[in-house]
Amino acid sequence: MGRKHRREKIPAPLRRQIRTEAGFGCVFCGMPIIEYHHIIPHAIVQKHEAENLVALCGNHHNSFHNKLIPEEEVYYRKKNPFNLSQDEIKGNFWLGSYESLKLELGSCTFIDTPKIFVVNDFPLIEIKKDEFGRPLLNVKFFDEKDVLIAEIVDNEWIVKRKTDKVWDLQWSQGELKINSASRKIHLTFVVDAIKNTVELKADLYYKNVLIKMGYRIRELKEC
Ligand SMILES: [Zn+2]
Question: Cα of 9 to ligand 1 centre, how many Å?
Answer without folding.
Answer: 22
